[in-house]
Design brief:
- This protein has 255 residues and is mainly beta.
- 7% of the residues lie in helices and 48% in strands.
- The chain contains one helix and 18 strands.
- The strands form four sheets. The protein has a five-stranded antiparallel β-sheet, with no helix packed on it.
- The chain is globular.
Length: 255
Amino acid sequence: MKKTVPYFCLLVIILLQACSGSREKKEELKYESDLIDSLANTRKEISFYFFDEQKDFPDAIIEMYSPLNLERFKPGKVPFEFNIKNYPFGEGLAGFQLNIILNSGDPIGYNSPIFQRDLNEGTYRVVAYLLDNEGLALKEFGNYVDRDFLVGDSRPFPYSAEPYLAMNLPINGQTYIEDEEITIDFLVIGGDMLLDNLKVQVRVGEYSYEINEAYPIRISDLPKGDYNLQLKLLKKDGTELDGPFSSVQKAIIVK
């Protein structure tokens, strides 16, 4: 009986070390770059992968009170109002807690559920979503909401029942230092990747990667340079979707 204690302690230590280690990369895809690792005397590899992300606040709900669907406003200040439930909004989470994206632009962060945006005439689609402690978009149903509205004398978008993308990270022109991990975080709105047979394809320069789940895509060891990052929502057979927001492009820089 006395001998079981050391074995139990050893097992606990092993489990703790395993839990404290780095997360396991899923579906990693590597490309050989033209750069040489001087220490190992081998070519560097560019890696694409994802992690099994912890789902924070899965029961969080965001409701949009303004704008209403296809509501029309005069050019100028447009009111936005949200109701947020089951989420510690305003209780000290780091950074912004609520982001909105207008027409596939860069996200704009807020820590208040009521605010205004100064908008010119046009047709707008807003995607509003909540963030976790790492600044990643919450992706469970109810964690985000979308709405079309009009400013001035403009017409609604042509009707489309197709799902589409909203990119949380990176923002356009984002700069990374060499060897910094790049995170591509996105939402698939109006569809389910599994049930609707969808996949997401990312292209960065000459490199590409595909994923069948809405996990953030990670890239490591991308060489220095200026890149056009393109994210596309596709059918699993590679067919492109026709909606206006089925693809997003951002410029990124690695220094």
